[in-house]
Each structure stands twice: as C-alpha cells, then as structure tokens.
Amino acid sequence: MTDRTDDDALEGAGIDVSRRGFLRTASLAAGGAALGGAAAAQETPDPLITDVQDWASATGEGVDATPYGLPIRFEGDVVRRTVSWLTADPISSINFTPIHALDGTITPAGCAFERHHSGAIELSKDDYRLMITGLVDRPLVFTWEDLQRFPRENHVYFCECAANSGMEWGGAQLNGAQFTHGMIHNMEYSGIPLRVLLEEAGVQPEGQWIYVEGADASSNGRSMPIEKAMDDVLVALTANGEALRKEHGYPVRLVVPGWEGNMWVKWLRRIGVTHSAVEAREETSKYTDLMPDGRARKWTWAMDAKSVITSPSPQKPITHGTGPLVITGLAWSGRGAVTRVDVSLDGGVNWQEARIGTQGGKYALSRFYLEIDWDGSPMLLQSRATDDTGYVQPTKDALREIRGLNSVYHNNGIQTWAVYENGAVENVEVGS
Amino acid sequence: MTDRTDDDALEGAGIDVSRRGFLRTASLAAGGAALGGAAAAQETPDPLITDVQDWASATGEGVDATPYGLPIRFEGDVVRRTVSWLTADPISSINFTPIHALDGTITPAGCAFERHHSGAIELSKDDYRLMITGLVDRPLVFTWEDLQRFPRENHVYFCECAANSGMEWGGAQLNGAQFTHGMIHNMEYSGIPLRVLLEEAGVQPEGQWIYVEGADASSNGRSMPIEKAMDDVLVALTANGEALRKEHGYPVRLVVPGWEGNMWVKWLRRIGVTHSAVEAREETSKYTDLMPDGRARKWTWAMDAKSVITSPSPQKPITHGTGPLVITGLAWSGRGAVTRVDVSLDGGVNWQEARIGTQGGKYALSRFYLEIDWDGSPMLLQSRATDDTGYVQPTKDALREIRGLNSVYHNNGIQTWAVYENGAVENVEVGS
C-alpha cells in the first residue's frame, strides 16, 4: 500500500512524487534515452524495481496441468459469501456476489449470486425433461437434446433476489456491499424464447397464466402472466457461454428479465398453462410485501431501479490517501435500461452526474464511475439511478413512508457509505 | 441421446412423435386439465419422467462449502486443451478455448485461450510495478495501487492469436473447432486507457512508437505505433469483472483491440516510448508472414474478418437425427464490427444469410445462428463474415494464391466442415 509515509520516504530519496500529489514516480537517469532494443531496455537501471521483483529472469509454470482455470491464490478473498444467521440451514441458503471486488458488469459464474431453497441438485442432461402441460393443445415433454433444436437468443441480464438489501429496511446493518447488495449477478444468458416452446404446445385461449416448477425438492413454484411468458422469458441453457453451473440450475433454468430472481426457476421441470394464478407458497407467504395496514402487496415482480457504490465501500476502503480517487458502482432497472446515475459526496445534499462506463441494455447492469480529488474530509457517499421510464431511485425514508418497516423484499432505496478521514468506510443511515 | 430408434420405440408405446418429426412428446392424460396448484401439478402422472428422475423428492447439497464455483462434473470435457506437438515444451505452450461447447459470445476466464512463452509467472499486486520510460518528459513508475486512481473503461474485446488456424495453411489438419479456431477468447476487459498514462508521462514529439515488455522471462517485447497506443489500447486490470487470471497476465496486461494476441503483453512491466520500431524477435523472426518470393510481410497487426461454425463441428456432431437443426458459430473482425454472416451448406456454391444472435461491438465476437430442416444428406458447412469496412472473409485458396504456403500466421480463410449422413463431422478442404 502507498501511504503518505511511503511518499515521504521516496521524497527523501530524491524521487518525485509531486505531480498531482500521488504518483510514486521515479526520474530515471537512463529513462530519457530512446530505447534501442530489448537489450537496451533491460539495461535501464531501476533501483525501485529490482528491490521488489526478480524481473524477467525465471520461467513460470506451465498452464496445461489445470483442467479448468481458477483465480490466482492472491484473490482467495474474492468469493461468494453467505450470512450464517440469514437462513435456518445451508440446504436453504444464499451466496452473495463479491461486488465490492469486481469491475465492469459481467459476473463470473464462479462467484455469481445464487439462492437455493432445498439444496443444489445434480441433474444430468440425459435425465433432464421439461414438461409443458395444462391448457395447451399438445402437452409436450422435451429432452435436453430436443431443446438443442430450437432457435436460441443471447442476452445479458441481471438476476436480483427480491430480498437484496432487504436486511436494510430497519436501518444500516451489514458492513459490505457484498452483503447489502450482492444478491445479484449479471451474465450473458443463451436459451430458447419460452414463447417458441409454448407455441409448439399451443396455448389455449383460456390459458392466461403459467405456473413454473423446478426439479428440486422445494419445486419453488411461481405463477406468471402469459403476457410475460410470451414476451422475453428464456429457457436458458448457458450463462457466460458455458453450461449453467449446478447451483444456477444446470442444465436448464428460466430467465425472467427484470423480474425478481425467485421467478428464475432453476432445474426447470414443468410449465403448466393455467387459467389463473396458483397463489402458491412462494408468492403468498413469501415474496410479498407486508404493508403498515396489515395488507400485503403481491405480484411485485419487476425490480425497481437501484444502484450501489461498490468502491469505496466497507470491504473496499481507501488505502492510498488523499488525491485522485475513483468512485465506482453498479446501477440497474427491472423496468428498462439505466439512463443516468448521480453521485453525492454529502449524503444527498448535492449531486453530480457520474460517467457511465458500460451502458447496460434493458435489464442489464450498468457500470458508473466518478473521478474526484479527495481532500481527506469525511464523505457520505450515495448513488442514485434513473431509468428510461423516468423513474428515479428513491431514498430509504421515502420508501419507508409508504411501505413501513414490515417488508423484507423490494428495498431499492439509496444506500449510504460513510467514508472517514483514514479511508475506512461504514454502512450508515442518513435522514432524507 | 434421442435417435430414430428411440422415436420408433416411443411410437410403439403410443407416444406422439409426429409433430415436426422430432419432438419426443407425450400426450399426458391429466395434462390437459388446468393446474389447481402445486399439489395438483405434482399429481400429474408421467411415466416418462418417473422413469428417469426421482423428481422433487430429495434435497440437494448446500453450496457454501465451495470457495470458488466450478462447473458441474458432467461438463468435465469443456476445458482448455493443448496440442502436444505444437510447442517444444509446456513452458511455452498454448491452451485452446473449447468454442465447440460454448454458446453466446462471452468466454469464461476458466476456459479462455491463453498463450505463454516462458510459463505463467506469479506476480503479486504488492510487487507489481509498471514503468513508462524512453522519450517522455517524466519517466514514471506506477504501483498497482497508483493504477487504481486513474479513470477506467470497460469493453468486450476478442483476443486472437495470430497463429489461430495457422495449422490449416497446408490443408485440413485438426479435427475440431477448438483446435482450428480456439486460439481466441472474448472477455469484458476493464482498465485504464494507455493514452492517459502516456499523457501523464508526457510523450515527446520524437516519440513515434512504443515498445512493450512483460515481466516474464520471455519479455515478449513488441513495438506499436504511437497512434494505436494513444487510441484504444487499455492497461487492463480485470477480465469478466474479476482480476485477471494468472495465465492471462495477473495483475496487469495490455489489451490491444483488434490486433494480434501476441501484442496483448501479459504481466505488463514496461512501456518504452521510442523513435522507431525496435524490430525485436517477436516481430521479425516470429509474427511475420513469409511470402512466396522469400520476403516477409511485417506489421500485420490487425486480425482480418473471420468466422467459424462451432456446432455442428467435429467435436460436436449431430446426434439427434434429421429434422430441425441449429447451426451456430462465431464471427469477428479486428478492423471493426461484423455486419453480416452467410452460411453455405454446399461448400460455398450457395449462401444464405445467418441470423445474428449477438451483434458484437467493434473488435468483439458476434454469435450467429441458422436454423434449417436437415434431410440427412451430407453437407459441406461454411461460414463467411463481412465487417463494417465492407471486407468479406476470403476462401483459403484465395489467401494461398497471394501468400503461398509458407505462412504460419493470419489465416482467416473460410473453414469447411463435412457433415455425413450419420451426423459425424470432419474437417475437410474444398476447392474454391
């Protein structure tokens, strides 16, 4: 880590650290001469470098011994994590994406959020079957190989658990973007439009809903209006190019763009076409929002626009002292595409527009950046997403005013990180 | 696998396989009734399904025991592979992406192509330094932490080895898209525009080239015109969201959009600003193209437009018999974006336009599909990419006419797969 003490030492050694106040620069005596070739370049003296690394002098290891590549050992902390008290048993658990440690927008499958209600089952392609039944002209059963024969599409979509940030309803609780906002991933899914398979079966006029089940013990049954099923839902076979991971529903899962992750049924087994909604467990006692008057909001499928600053954040403090600082984060909307992100350094009093690094498409993560010159004063960092419907991400207090404090799901309120003079970052609440 | 024998057996059992001639469908007695709920759905009798899977009756395994997720064991064949005779020693080797088994456009890092000339070195972030030297006002050394303070961009780019398909110059040799075209990957890279770092150092007017070196023993030094360096080159810190893998140059590599992979220097150590090209080993004796008259083409940096059918292909034969068949593949151009892909079923006599599943941006992979009704006749499958410069991918023979047979690099000729009546696929040559 570079800190001000190191810089002082370098200045004492005659090394220029003045430019923009932070670069650990070395005025190399021989560096000003044009390089005549590789040999000349290697002769350039550089005391700093020979101190730390025995450069370009020894061969590394071969790579072909690794059957499937893994991150380098130095990145062992960049993994999914769970919160042990959140669920009763590891058979029903949640693994959060380490969003604080990632950049760009794609989530690698190896650390991508997943939630399972009765364990991750192992289902081979040979054993796999998908049934379409109910109000259809021709009930069908598809093998995995049958599915290979239908037209496929590719889309980058986010999958967010309805409970993402749910533990923040009552106030700042969890110290890390991974835990407050990590029930989300963003992958390039490829699969067959569900519409194509439903048309193959022939949906009858009275078929106004579908009821979707997985092959795991929970079944995780969910109802969905036929309009969504015939619109952009995918029967997905791959994520980020490769077969789905076991914990993401291998070999086939449903992808329901923009809608809560619980509807993205894994180990997809059956799609029943029905006249009305089933009102099963996962859409009545769960995945509804208890309002202050005792009634529950239901069918709250779409994930409203939301954003979070991933760095700096509690797990990613500022370790380089004052001066240039890159603030970055993620923004998304389950109702369309993000069009703008604003960032506040003072808890929502003043806002400035962030630079969009990746403009995610509909229902995909966007990456934003704001570069500032940090003077070392404490900050209250916030981000605020706007989507192409004109919706602006609200404050937590504005949400609480309407929904009260009974809710678990659908907290898309603005998150606040307090940054202290020493660079440490903490999850805090500010009034709005 | 579903084959015609299976279908016959199903028809004998009274199961309807007539619709479009391939679906393994079951007319379920109870399936026509509306589902009343999860319980009712589970009561639907289905002899096919209970035969193969003890559905929804047992819990799976917890997921949190896995520190970093890996593919399910059934996908153990979807890994990088090398060709043992291709390089003298595993210290200097190549690992090919299993493109035949992937869909969409993103390559997971765990199976993404990599080439190393003196092993994959292990370099920690703390030990990392990047030097900018030569014809600059202020020679600079950046720590990894310094680099975190500069503005970053995110781009999906392909990285293709100049030698990709190089073994095909003399004729069809390797039986698999992984081996003929797998020296490529496509990831979302995030990093700092090299321009920003060069401007920090202050490039002098006589600085017309840069010379880039890695920290591995090979150094892999490459020269590049300053115009490219100041245009779109990135000093990349992450790929697909996470830190670069060791074999992809952890912690920092150069990304040179559209240009041959050898210039994407890994374990990036030094950028020297020079008056002229260094003409080092990797750009004279290697990575040049020996022409029939004994002279060598050099500075052939940009990868010309190219495509390949990934399925069906020799490693991905047709196993489902006649009827609906999805033909799919990848297309790319190092001079811009792919605008169109055509597919031929008869070795280039007739062409039809493929459907673009993902329209890759500049210097990114595109995914194409063509759905056909296969009558079981032999086919000679080819694909042909066109990019936004108007360039059309040539035949191998057209390339050979000009470049002869001495070349190793820059073979972007049209590939041919012979598909036989039994669905097997083979790499073949056809005259053009």
Structure commentary:
The structure is a homodimer of 432-residue chains. Chain A is α+β, with helices and mostly antiparallel strands and 432 residues long. Chain A has eight helices and 23 strands. Chain A has three domains: 4-52, no CATH class; 93-297, Alpha-Beta Complex (Sulfite Oxidase, Chain A, domain 2), CATH 3.90.420.10; 306-427, Immunoglobulin-like (Sandwich), CATH 2.60.40.650. Chain A is globular, with a radius of gyration of 25 Å. Chains A and B meet through α2, α3, β3, β4 and β6 of A and α2, α3, β3, β4 and β6 of B.
Short description:
By secondary structure, the first copy, chain A, is α+β, with helices and mostly antiparallel strands.
Task: Please report the distance between the alpha carbons of the first and last residues of chain A.
Answer: 36 Å
Low-confidence stretches of chain A: 1-50
Question: Would you identify the CATH architecture of the largest domain in chain A?
Answer: Alpha-Beta Complex
Q: Oligomeric status of the shown chains?
A: homodimer
Quote the CATH topology of the largest domain in chain A: Sulfite Oxidase, Chain A, domain 2
Structural class of chain A: alpha+beta
Can you identify the CATH superfamily of the largest domain in chain A? Answer: Oxidoreductase, molybdopterin-binding domain
Number of domains of chain A: 3
| β-sheet strand percentage of chain A | 25-35%
Query: What is the alpha-carbon Rg of chain A in Å?
Result: 25 Å
